[in-house]
Amino acid sequence: MAMHVARNWRETPERYRMEAAKCKKCAAIHFPARIICPECQGREFATVRLSGKGELATFTIIRVAPTGFGDLIPYAVGIVKMDEGIHVMAQIVDCNPEELKIGNRVVSQFRRINQEGKTGMILYGYKFVPDLGL
Amino acid sequence: MIGIVGYGSHIPRYRIKVEEIAKVWGADAPAYKKGLGLNEKSVPAPDEDCATLAVSASRNALRRANIDAKQIGAVYVGSESHPYAVKPTGTIVSEALGACPFVHTADLEFACKAGTEGMFIALHLVKSGVVQYALAVGADTSQGAPGDALEFSAAAGAAAFIMGSKNLAAELLDTHCYMTDTPDFWRREHAYYPEHGGRFTGKPAYEKHLFSATAGMLEKAKLKPEDISYVIFHQPNGKFPVNAAQKLGFKEPQYKLGLLCPTLGNTYSGSSPMGLAATLDAAEADRLILLVSYGSGAGSDAFIFRTTKKLLEIRDMAPKTRKQLDEHKQYIEYGTYAKFRRKILRAE
Amino acid sequence: MNEVAIIGVGMTKWGELWEKSLRDISVEAALKCLDDAGVDKVDSITVGTMSGGLFNAQEHLGSLVADYLGQRFVPATRVESACASGGLAVKTACMEVASGLSQYALAVGVEKMTDVDGGDATFALATASDYDYEAFHGITFPGLYALMAVAHMKKYGTSLEQLAQVSVKNHHNGSLNPHAQFPFAVTLDQVMTSTMVADPLRLLHCSPITDGSAAVLLVPLAVAKKMNKPYAVITGIGHASDTIALCQRKDIAKLEVVEVAAQRALKMAGKTIRDIDFAEVHDCFSIAEIMVMEALGVVEPGQGGPATINGLTALDGDFPINPSGGLKSKGHPVGATGVAQVVEAVIQLRGQAGPRQIKNARTALTQNMGGSGASSIIHILEAR
User: Fold this and answer.
1) In whole numbers, what is the pLDDT of chain C averaged over residues?
2) Residue C40: DSSP 8-state
3) Burial tier of C95 (Cβ tally within 10 Å: 0-12, 13-18, 19+)
4) Among the listed residues C262, C252, C326, the one whose alpha carbon sits nearest the alpha carbon of residue C297
5) Distance CA C309, CA C313 (A)
6) Which of A44, A71, A116, C348 could form a disulfide with B46 if both were Cys (CB 3.0 to 4.6 A apart)?
7) Could you give the angle at the alpha carbon of B130 between the alpha carbons of B128 and B136, nearest 5°?
8) Average pLDDT over residues C216-241
9) What angle do CA B54, B59, B61 make, to 5 degrees?
10) Is there a contact between B225 and B314 (Cβ–Cβ < 8 Å)?
11) Other CB atoms closer than 10 Å to residue A55's CB: what's the count?
């Protein structure tokens, strides 16, 4: 069983808290964080935590899945336009994928993404659920 | 004064009805519904576990507490379905909230009372002055063995409480505990499903500890049942807490708000804490709440809180428990349930 | 810079080649190419493979191929640009000749994908995406292209029939190609009722898992002239990269990386798209061909679907695309595809394509693409 402890651990700020980087020079937001801003070549950033709220920009329904995702078939994966203006790819869950529509409001939630085998690391991260305004 | 500054809960969206489960095992659904006082239960999706539920409930608690996660000095997660046997859930929750690194964390386990266990510790830790805020979560995605009575009730859910000493939504009056070593329900290491003592789980277990803790708490606080506006008991099914209430001198209006089990099932470490969260969602200000948990093995934690006007200001800031329970649920049938709960034998 | 000509081409049969190993098929294609050129010795080898490591637990492919091709001490390079590794191998070999560093530069594209099971093959392919921010979330390559299809259909009204027609056309062409993995026709109905893989893309919209190799030999123009037989000249190269993650592109209904690469290639060749007679493009999924033809400027944005249904890109159309059968019917051994596109272009330009021959084929464009459009390499070739 392959183990990737450091690689996954390193992603904690993005996966657990959706931390992005805001360029101090041009205010562009980047997720994941970058070392150099592709817009203005700036090299200084402030950490910003995305609100988790956004709109479904596009999605597909996966029916043939990679290893580890079989239990969720059929599941929706989409691109969400966050309220901060940037785009993020993730699964959309807690819904019937066939009933999703582009433009639906969604909100992020902490979920299990995968695991490295039955005895390996559990990989947590962000998914989106329909924003029901509860 | 110490007490609850923020609270939150999280219930998965999926549900399965008693009839669905009974059908597969040839069981008498109406009899089970009547005997257990239970109609349906929550089911966690394959991508949910104790940690994910705990994080969602805690984020809701943070919204109501309106504090920065970095101010939390301690995080305690109580569960009997921690994702790892060795590796804390508490650190996962702390990281996800943003409370790291200056935070004390521990995972707790005591069957269904691991949640209130954390609440007890969190409250008294704040009282000692060691931390400003302490978070206690009860979260579970417990398993019931296929075909066993517990399969009808083993459910999933979480409730989280941030304890502090100012801007309190509910003040703590006092706590009381009652523990003995009692073998009513347990799970050995590497066993997938728990064992239980059948009818032994009634009088010598649930009743003895819950009743003693309740009596002891009321006496300590010099109160009578009629002084309590809202009572929440541990809810392994819809019958035990109702019988307990009646025997202990409480009436339906007192336990109504906090009785979630009939449509939620037994959320184990989340059970009475979620009942408390549901109560706080609708309670009036300046009223007394009695919370008594029960965990097999066995023991009960008791708390008396007084609601404040602050509660009314904060409770709309996050999803309410009954709303999550009653609205937007998706029913599934047994096959999907078995797949979700990993009860189906798979090739490696 | 020297002008560069192609004097030899070769490829293996493509498909599930259980009895042949990675080194077997790369040597087979290379020898066919050298025999076609009438050349014994090369002075440079460039191997295009997406992932010898993940498919075959074998890196260091430059040396492996040089060794087993019997070309000891020849400098050998392995290049990678996901599914554009083949095109990159051709470009790299071309630069060696253009710079004067080499006279006989062999480019070999090869991928042996059936040495791992389906799950591992899918994982290997997923490394062409942004692994931590796309594959990590459970998206697959059909899923990434499905997202583009959804956006394209929403923006332009592209229909499922138009998508399916790409597969029908390419299978028709592939049925005339003896090297193709699936040398048979499919009907529109078969495509539109095949298993759904990632809505709206179905099995028959997707290129397959394939073993295969293809090779071309590049020489300076002066060497080609001396050989007294038809050859092709590379007159334009265009190469561009774009964001690795699909969600960070400016417009996911557009393949901007192909637009940029095409502009560069056409500028170098001193041509416009109207001067191109036919193209071999990267139809990893049928939506890709539609988007590529728009990015190349063959049609206006959004007109790729209608043009396909109207036969513009058929073998006998005004702008034939994928006379070889494309990735869909010919197969898609990832690193080999870009080289095979050039092989087909050369065969067409020489007039040797038999039943697939395009009339008056004088100028060709090959377009190879990596990942979900994070890289693209375009070559323009002319018959001499």
Assistant:
1) 97
2) -
3) middle
4) C262
5) 9
6) A71
7) 85
8) 95
9) 95
10) no
11) 14
Residues of A in contact with C119 (CB under 8 A): 66-67
- Residue A86: closest CA among C380, C93, C133, C304: C133
Q: What is the dihedral sign for C-alpha B235, B239, B241, B244?
A: negative
Going by DSSP bridges, is the β-strand pair B156-164/B133-141 parallel, antiparallel, or unpaired?
antiparallel
* Rounded Cα distance, B124 and B108, in Å: 16
- For chain A, what are the domain ranges? 5-130
Q: Which of the listed CATH numbers 3.40.47.10, 3.40.50.300, 3.40.1190.20, 3.40.50.720 matches domain B3-169+327-340?
A: 3.40.47.10
What does the alpha-carbon distance between residue B60 and residue B77 come to, in Å, rounded to a whole number? 15
Looking at beta carbons, which residues of chain C come within 8 Å of A58?
Answer: 147, 150-151, 154, 252
Work out the angle at residue B221's Cα, subtended by the Cα atoms of residues B136 and B77, and round it to the nearest 5 degrees.
10
Interface test with B, best of A1, A14, A71 (most B CBs within 10 A): A71
Pairing of strands B3-10, B195-196: unpaired
Instruction: Quickly state the pLDDT bin for A133 (edges 50, 70, 90).
Output: confident
Please tell me if residue C96 touches chain A, with a CB cutoff of 8 Å: no
Homologous superfamily of B170-311: Thiolase/Chalcone synthase (3.40.47.10)
Residue B348's pLDDT is: 61
> Stretch B236-249: mean pLDDT, rounded?
96
Q: What does the angle CA B6 – CA B10 – CA B14 come to, to the nearest 5 degrees? A: 170
Q: Which of A66, A123, A125 sits opposite C126 (nearest CB)?
A: A66
Orientation angle between helical segments C141-156 and C286-296, nearest 10 degrees:
60
Q: Which pLDDT value is given to residue B143? A: 85
Cα distance between residue C379 and residue C361, in whole Å: 15
Q: pTM (2 decimals)?
A: 0.94
Cα dihedral: C227, C232, C237, C243 (round 10): -120
What digits encode the pLDDT tens for the residues B168-223? 999 999 999 999 999 999 999 888 888 889 899 889 999 999 999 999 999 999 99
A134, B328: Cβ pair inside 8 Å?
yes
B317's tokens: 């800031």
**Residue A9 CB contacts under 8 Å (≥ 6 apart), including other chains:** none
Q: Between the CA of residue B119 and those of B163, B291, C98, what are the distances in Å?
A: 8, 11, 75
Q: Which domains does chain C have, with CATH numbers?
A: 4-118+210-226 (3.40.47.10), 140-205+235-383 (3.40.47.10)
pLDDT in tens, B258-308: 999 999 999 999 999 999 999 999 999 999 999 999 999 999 999 999 999
By Cβ distance, the residue of B46, B55, B328 closest to A110 is B55
Examine the pLDDT at C286 and tell me if it is beyond 70: yes
Beta carbons of B339 and A71 less than 8 Å apart: yes
Residues 6 or more apart whose Cβ sits within 8 Å of residue A125 = A11, A15, A16, A90, A110, A111, A113, C136, C137
C7 touches chain A (CB under 8 A): no
* B244-265 average pLDDT score: 97
Q: How far is CA A65 from the centre of its chain?
A: 18
C-alpha distance from residue C381 to each of C199, C271, C275 (Å): 37, 11, 11
Judged by CB atoms within 8 Å, which residues 309-338 of B form the interface with A? 319-320, 323-324, 327-328, 330
Structure tokens of A38? Answer: 């592709």
Block residue for tokens 């394509």: C353
Rounded distance, CA C73 to CA C43, Å?
Answer: 9
Q: Do A90 and C199 touch (CB under 8 A)?
A: no
* Interface predicted TM-score (ipTM): 0.95
How many residues are present in chain B?
A: 348
Distance CA C360, CA C379 (A): 19
- The label of the residue with tokens 């190269």 reads C237
Distances (CA, A) of C187 to B238, C167, C190, C193, C372: 60, 9, 5, 10, 27
